[in-house]
Design a protein that fits this description.
Number of strands: 17
Low-confidence stretches: 441-446
Number of helices: 13
Largest sheet: 6 strands, mixed
Order of helices and strands: EEEEEEEEHHEHHEHEHEHEEHEEEHHHHH
CATH topology of one domain: Rossmann fold
Mean pLDDT: 92
CATH architecture of one domain: 3-Layer(aba) Sandwich
Length: 452
């Protein structure tokens, strides 16, 4: 086990509130009667729909085919009949084509019953890569970057280290914590598969020290692994962001506009490693994921193995609430997305559903910036959030870009500490969208952000 580390510069330590769900074992969520499966639930191009209304599907059948290299396959999460193909909002607010499947028949368990287990050690590297791509695996920590691309670096990028991300720094969320405790051996096997695929000897598993049981258990499992070490980390949000995790592990910074592979690293979430193991050993695509459902008004908070496409409403109906929710967030309180409607489906990147009561939701109006500099001090990537906000507010998007807008990881530290309650991250998200939208405007001004 390596010594205790943390990334340097910035960060915050909001109340963790993980004890609501971190002691509860993972259980299977109820099988939904209907799922809505988006074809855009990953970074890159949306998958192409290959089914139509009336098509009979089985769990694990391909329903959305990856378009080009930078895309990901999408599979049916239940067996039944395609009853509609619609275009609706996802948890991030963007619209996506969705395949609506109604369950029919008898539940057969994981893709028709007990899957056939095969050894991965004897599989060729190109076979392993094809299985990862075919399974539609993406980063399950939230970014949903297609894994087959991440593990296929250019020839000039020599990978020397794989970092397994078990940090889970976002408050309330505990699904990765439980996966390490209950699926630790499979996670390590998934890590070893990537080591073989990338021809990497050295690997570490980063875990914050508020998960001592996971640190001790994973360390015990790694005692017989010569090339895998456990890296305990001091609690410091957002240490789970891959660039901050690399800084903590290596003391090096990923260059602006760069990727971890520029430092010879690949970072993979522990849930993603489990998915890699299941894809390579059992030929299992991503049809479900573990979701933390939590909040002080949730009757049965916990970690639920949930079918992709299950609506938030169905999951909350199963868990129950003690009072009406004031706000429901997909993800955690720092980086998650508040939901306007609850008939929105769980996707591959949905790590949690957080339910807040009326007394827990502050209704503070945005006040003028007082130039206190708090946002600058906590920014983990050394930006100037207050200045970026003013430039974005004045529609000076090129200027915002020049001072680092696309280096912003949208962690929410600046918004969290702002005494004026300025939703800084929302300005930055909108600014990025405006800059991207400008490419689609010809001789027209990009829509402006009203001056506050």
């Amino acid at each position: 086990m390596l010594g205790l580390k943390r990334f340097r510069g910035g960060g915050v330590h909001p109340p963790e509130n993980k004890d609501l769900s971190n002691h509860n074992r993972i259980i299977n969520a109820d099988l939904p009667k209907v799922v809505k499966i988006p074809l855009q639930q990953h970074a890159g191009a949306a998958a192409k729909c290959i089914v139509e209304t009336g098509t009979e599907v089985k769990e694990g059948d391909l329903i959305g085919e990856a378009v080009g290299a930078f895309s990901a396959n999408v599979h049916a999460s239940i067996q039944g009949k395609v009853i509609d193909i619609v275009k609706e909002s996802t948890v991030t607010g963007f619209e996506s084509e969705m395949v609506v499947i109604e369950f029919e028949g008898t539940f057969q368990g994981q893709i028709g019953g007990q899957p056939l287990k095969v050894s991965w050690e004897g599989q060729a590297r190109d076979v392993i890569l094809k299985k990862i791509r075919a399974a539609g695996i993406v980063g399950l920590g939230g970014a949903a970057f297609p894994t087959h691309i991440k593990v296929s670096p250019p020839e000039d990028k020599k990978i020397e280290l794989i970092v397994a991300n078990g940090v889970e720094c976002e408050p309330y969320l505990t699904c990765d914590h439980r996966l390490m405790l209950e699926k630790g051996m499979e996670i390590i096997e998934g890590l070893k598969i990537l080591q073989r695929l990338l021809r990497v000897d050295k690997a570490i598993i980063g875990i914050e020290n508020n998960k001592q049981d996971a640190i001790q258990y994973m360390d015990a499992l790694c005692q017989k692994e010569e090339n895998i070490d456990i890296l305990p980390l001091k609690v410091n949000y957002p240490q789970g962001a891959e660039k901050q995790l690399i800084h903590a592990a290596l003391g090096k910074e990923v260059p602006s506009g760069g990727l971890p592979m520029d430092l010879g690293c690949v970072v993979s979430n522990v849930g993603t490693l489990l998915a890699v193991y299941e894809a390579v050993v059992f030929d299992k695509p991503i049809t479900d994921r573990v979701v933390t459902v939590t909040g002080t008004i949730v009757k049965k908070p916990g970690n639920y193995k949930t079918k992709i496409g299950t609506t938030i409403q169905d999951l909350l109906d199963e868990c129950g609430l003690t009072e009406e929710a004031e706000k429901v967030i997909a993800g955690g309180p720092m980086m998650g997305f508040a939901q306007q409607f609850l008939d929105i489906p769980i996707v591959k990147g949905t790590s949690g559903i957080l339910v807040l009561s009326q007394k827990e939701v502050e209704a503070n109006e945005e006040q003028p910036c007082i130039r206190c500099g708090a946002c600058i001090r906590v920014c983990p990537v050394y930006l100037m959030p207050c200045t970026m906000k003013e430039l974005a507010n004045a529609n000076l998007f090129d200027e915002v870009k020049e001072i680092g807008l696309f280096d912003c990881i949208e962690c929410g530290c600046c918004s969290y500490v702002c005494p004026s309650k300025i939703p800084l991250v929302q300005y930055f998200r909108l600014g990025k969208l405006m800059i991207k939208a400008e490419k689609h405007y010809i001789n027209h001004k990009v829509p402006t952000i009203p001056i506050s």
